[in-house]
Design goal:
Blueprint: E1 5-8, E2 11-14, E3 16-17, E4 26-32, E5 55-57, H1 75-78, E6 93-98, E7 107-113, H2 131-135, E8 139-143, H3 148-152, H4 168-183, E9 189-199, H5 201-210, E10 221-225, E11 235-236, H6 237-250, H7 259-264, E12 283-284, H8 294-301, E13 306-312, H9 326-329, H10 335-346, H11 352-358, H12 366-376, H13 390-403, E14 408-414, H14 431-434, H15 442-445, H16 461-478, E15 492-495, E16 499-502, H17 508-521
Parallel strand pairs: 2-5, 7-8, 7-9, 9-10, 10-13, 11-12, 13-14, 14-15
Antiparallel strand pairs: 1-2, 3-4, 4-6, 6-8, 15-16
Amino acid sequence: MALEIAKTKNGLIRGALQEGANAGITVFKKVPYAKPPIGALRFKPAEPVADWEGVYDGTSYAPAEFQTLCEGAPYLTDFYFNDWPALSEDCLYLSVTTGAESAEEKRPVYVWFHGGGLSTGFYYEIAFDGNALAKKGIIVVSVAQRLNVFGYLALPQLRDENGKNGNYGFTDQLMAMRWIRENIAAFGGDPDNITIGGQSGGSQKVCMLAGSPAGKGLFKRVIAHSGLKWMQHFKTQEEAEAEGKAYLAACGIDPDISAEALRALPPTIFNLKANAKIPGEMICDGDLVPYPFMKDCLEAYAGGTEFICGTCLGEADVFADMGISEKEGKQDFTAERFYAHFRTLLGPLYDDEKFRALVPVTDETAYRRARELATAGLARKGRVNFSRNLMLARLFGAHMQKIDPAFRNYVFLFSHFLPLRPEDKGGPNDPEIIMAYHSSDLFYAFGSLGEGVPPTRPWQPYDFELADKVTSLFADFMSGKAPWKDSADGSYIEFGDAVTCHEGISGELEDLIRRYVEEEYSV
């Protein structure tokens, strides 16, 4: 019999019993893990949730964090086709999806942190529905935390007694992890077998948990989709505070307003479309975020963890840091422009005759091939490429094993295109153009695809086969098994129109990509 009421250390909570194909699974949709960060608690570190009396009703979801909602296809049609949730500062909740029948079962736990940079998204987006993983014995927890201004505004007047401020959203993550570790057994989970995962901005969240001294002992494993934030850079406290003051001025708020007056303002006054850089980044405070580079943080604190990391084919920026927009760059991208582009990119590593032999293209195939090579690693760092770089992910394991020989890293490339919707044929959202777009792997990683999810995507039998394979491999990892060959020698798995294991770094082109990435990132 499904577990309907869980006894947490803060009190009893009721979940929503699933029916139909998901019968036997309970979703506790609204579980408070910290005090609401409102009033005097706005722009302060998360505080432990207060105990409650009676049975807390966790059968409906909480409002989403304050944010600017996503616009544009394919995200509106694939991910956000339902009505948008209400928004509120009172947002520090998580959900638990469990198939356990009692609190004694000790199932593996997967804690998910959503994407959207550190500025958008919410914890119950349909793409990361936890039912499929729950059917495979995993308890799935999805966490909300403060975003954008509310999570990362830094100002001199907000400095706490330690002289730090700005990482409020990260303190939410830490509070959530501590609450989960103390309470997940009430839902049938094993507190000593926790994997954390996230995608895009969520990947930054989980990588920082692995790279923070405050995260030690809270989990065992990490899954980072799109992707590994090994080369993430963090602003200093002073830089973040200067940006915070400029942002307030752009909102028409006195940058020197007192902390008390700032906390008394209505939340809607913080313009999330202001003509200034909106706070929404973690800050190197020398404490929770100990070093300016994620690389140093991971080297210092990620020992003893295991990683899965990967990227989607086509999501890297071909023209990053080259003074060319993608729209300009892809126009008339002939074969000759292709070779000129890589001649500029590779510099002394470029040998025209050899490169042309290794990578033959025509005018028709040139731009598509450039995007494939960018994902493989042949693109400059840019704003996102450092985390959407297959070769960099492949090199991570060997690098970390020099520090901790027991470290393991498993790499994936997601190259399967979502099936074509007739209305997209020939347009910008045609799979042959958009390729395996950013976030598209989540339908498979969670097995969340299905009839009507999303409404117009004509899933084929292979889509369900691939989703079953991916969820099974990820569930193996969460259970403590090696999902596929680790990347110590550069090996990775490809989830494409077949599931293919690629052994080592082989061939002249792969060796060229390796040498370029090592030079670009000083690995």
